[in-house]
């Protein structure tokens, strides 16, 4: 069976700190700290490993934090290929406010990979596509990489018949879409930025998702936090509503959706089932601390609790 490759060009160590109530411009005493390997493609790989899929995480890494990150991936039994560059992997701070149940994210900009390492990456990536069925591209681009870097990778993957799921935002998403990835998964804010207007109703979101689908993107998934998701595909447009949870940290919820999509595509599952899997995976991850992700058993048990409507 061919593998799934996830790419995290700007990985991170996620440092999640919990405070009773966040006081801006005041002293905050930290109750709890946890560290997780982070970055969108890495989170997708974490879920896929839990699901028993054959996945490899690719990207750039640097410095002491890079070594710590590689050790964290090893500890989670995640196969990886990270190209070493100068500097240090970033640390992204996630501040959980227990009183409001809100998380504030402070993400570093990341480390610029050298040109020669980028060229090495592209060469090896192209070779790897021959053994790959599905590609997941996730997260921000590190400084120095052109905004159309994802488009370049999608074009290379396409030469080998590899389908791509793209989870990015801003210019990287807009440029990536030009290469016609198989799927995109913007959250609502990212979709609004992409279409350049507010989308205040389900009808407006459906219209925007369908119009992007009509531009040649087979699967458009719009994630909407506690409101669930809207999915536009050839088979139809679906509205998914999750079961209620107590959100602990929503960090990685969107990545868990992407991972569930990759899993379902690899398994050739029917579209409506895929919508169920994606929603359940996102919601279970949102109910876990830090950047901890859902497991196969947890998701399987909750599939029937997701409400899916064919619009
Ligand atoms: N508070 C919540 N209650 C129930 N389900 C949730 C909640 N937050 C997230 N989810 C689930 O996770 C999915 C993805 O969430 P969201 O739209 O916040 O993704 P995202 O913004 O891409 O997240 P991230 O970038 O942090 O991974 C939702 O579609 C939903 O199924
Ligand atoms: O700064 P980016 O690359 O946009 O997002 C990075 C990040 O916030 O995304 C993941 C959650 O989706 C976290 O693990 C990680 O810290």
Automatic annotation (TrEMBL):
<dbReference type="GO" id="GO:0008662">
    <property type="term" value="F:1-phosphofructokinase activity"/>
</dbReference>
<feature type="domain" description="Carbohydrate kinase PfkB">
    <location>
        <begin position="8"/>
        <end position="295"/>
    </location>
</feature>
<comment type="similarity">
    <text>Belongs to the carbohydrate kinase PfkB family. LacC subfamily.</text>
</comment>
<keyword id="KW-0423">Lactose metabolism</keyword>
<dbReference type="InterPro" id="IPR022463">
    <property type="entry name" value="1-PFruKinase"/>
</dbReference>
<protein>
    <recommendedName>
        <fullName>Tagatose-6-phosphate kinase</fullName>
        <ecNumber>2.7.1.144</ecNumber>
    </recommendedName>
</protein>
<comment type="similarity">
    <text>Belongs to the carbohydrate kinase pfkB family.</text>
</comment>
<keyword id="KW-0547">Nucleotide-binding</keyword>
<comment type="pathway">
    <text>Carbohydrate metabolism; D-tagatose 6-phosphate degradation; D-glyceraldehyde 3-phosphate and glycerone phosphate from D-tagatose 6-phosphate: step 1/2.</text>
</comment>
<dbReference type="Pfam" id="PF00294">
    <property type="entry name" value="PfkB"/>
</dbReference>
<dbReference type="InterPro" id="IPR017583">
    <property type="entry name" value="Tagatose/fructose_Pkinase"/>
</dbReference>
<keyword id="KW-0067">ATP-binding</keyword>
<dbReference type="InterPro" id="IPR011611">
    <property type="entry name" value="PfkB_dom"/>
</dbReference>
<dbReference type="InterPro" id="IPR002173">
    <property type="entry name" value="Carboh/pur_kinase_PfkB_CS"/>
</dbReference>
<keyword id="KW-0418">Kinase</keyword>
<keyword id="KW-0808">Transferase</keyword>
<comment type="function">
    <text>Catalyzes the ATP-dependent phosphorylation of fructose-l-phosphate to fructose-l,6-bisphosphate.</text>
</comment>
<dbReference type="InterPro" id="IPR029056">
    <property type="entry name" value="Ribokinase-like"/>
</dbReference>
């Amino acid at each position: 069976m061919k593998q799934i490759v996830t790419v995290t060009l700007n990985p991170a160590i996620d440092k999640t700190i919990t405070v009773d109530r966040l006081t801006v411009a005041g002293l905050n005493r930290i109750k709890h700290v946890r560290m997780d390997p982070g970055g969108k493609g890495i989170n997708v790989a974490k879920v896929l490993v839990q699901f028993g899929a054959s996945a490899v995480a690719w990207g750039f890494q640097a410095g002491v934090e890079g070594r710590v990150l590689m050790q964290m991936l090893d500890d989670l039994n995640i196969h990886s290929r990270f190209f070493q560059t100068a500097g240090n992997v970033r640390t992204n701070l996630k501040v959980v406010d227990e009183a409001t149940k809100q998380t504030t994210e402070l993400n570093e900009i990341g480390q610029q990979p050298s040109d020669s390492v980028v060229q090495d990456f592209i060469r090896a990536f192209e070779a790897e596509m021959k053994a790959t069925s599905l590609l997941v591209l996730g997260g921000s681009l590190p400084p120095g990489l052109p905004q159309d870097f994802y488009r370049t990778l999608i074009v290379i993957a396409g030469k080998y018949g590899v389908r791509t799921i793209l989870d990015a935002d801003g210019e990287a998403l807009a440029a990536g879409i030009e290469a016609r990835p198989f799927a995109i998964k913007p959250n609502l804010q990212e979709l609004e930025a992409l279409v350049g207007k507010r989308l205040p109703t389900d009808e407006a979101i459906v219209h925007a998702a369908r119009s992007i689908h009509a531009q040649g993107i087979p699967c458009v998934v719009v994630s909407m936090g506690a409101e669930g998701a809207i999915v536009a595909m050839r088979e139809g447009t679906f509205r998914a509503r999750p079961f209620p949870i107590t959100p602990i940290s929503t960090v990685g919820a969107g990545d868990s959706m992407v991972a569930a999509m990759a899993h379902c595509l690899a398994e050739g599952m029917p579209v409506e089932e895929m919508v169920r899997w994606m929603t359940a995976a996102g919601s279970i991850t949102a109910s876990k601390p830090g950047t901890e992700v859902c497991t196969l058993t947890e998701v399987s048990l909750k599939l029937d609790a997701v409400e899916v409507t064919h619009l």
